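Supplementary Text 2. Reproducibility record for the structural model of the 293-residue chain.

All settings were left at their defaults, and a single model was retained for analysis rather than an ensemble. We include the record here because the model underlies the residue-level annotations in Supplementary Table 4.
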Amino acid sequence: MRLIRVEHRGECFWAVLDAEANFLQRIRAPFAEWAGGRSTQGLEAFSPDKIGIALAQCRVLPPLEPGARVFGVGLNYLSHLQRLGSVAPEHTLAYIKPESALVGAHDDIQYPALTAQLDYEVELVAVVGRALGDEPRASDCLLGYTCGNDVSARDAGKRIGRLDLLTQKAMDRTTPVGPWVVTLDEFGSAQPALDIELRVNGERRQLDNTRQMIFALDELLNYLDARISLRPGDLVFTGSSHGVGLEDGRFLQPGDQVDVRIEGVGTLSNRVSEPRRLSPARAVGRLGEPLPT
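Retained model, structure tokens:
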């Protein structure tokens, strides 16, 4: 089943999508009621509207329930680490993105004013359906999966010689996610084995399979939940593989077309916008030096 969040006639809501017919039925039941496992009970469990809406009449939004959080983890594909001269770590690295960093499946990626090294990262994104609690297998608490492109400012923190995840991972309108959530029952196992692919202007840059994760999905979810209790609707980016611009210096440029595809889940198709400009009053660093534009 495909669950999608859209804007239609000024209202934002979740819906059940018939992908073949390209129409959707608005879900009337509260998110917390159906996200915890109703996808296995059939369409009527969602209390959908009887009359459908054409997908073409809607704007596709990031599949994030209002008030939910967005988490990311890194260091999760060995081939990526090896190409950067590193090795598998003892545990993952995690961070939080604000809701304002997200864009929909067909929206522009905003080119931030504070970077000259904008990079791409295809990632499988897990969508939490209910609190993990005492479940023996954390992934059983998922609603399903969606696609993500964890666009990063690679030159963040160079001036201070330290990691700056706020600038690198959290800037406004830089992170495509969507277009919908494919429910857990369509995958059939705790650790999915899905091909992930990213192309820039039609050229394939990334290709791998989620079976190659260093840390399995259950381990990632437990790592996060031990620090911040996961809640229904939270998104978890699960890391990216080799082929990113950081490896060969081919970073994203304004006007680039970036396409993400994850097997059995969906596709993202986003264009990189022209660089955003800061006002002169804001375009200065701590020491009075101009920031990159």
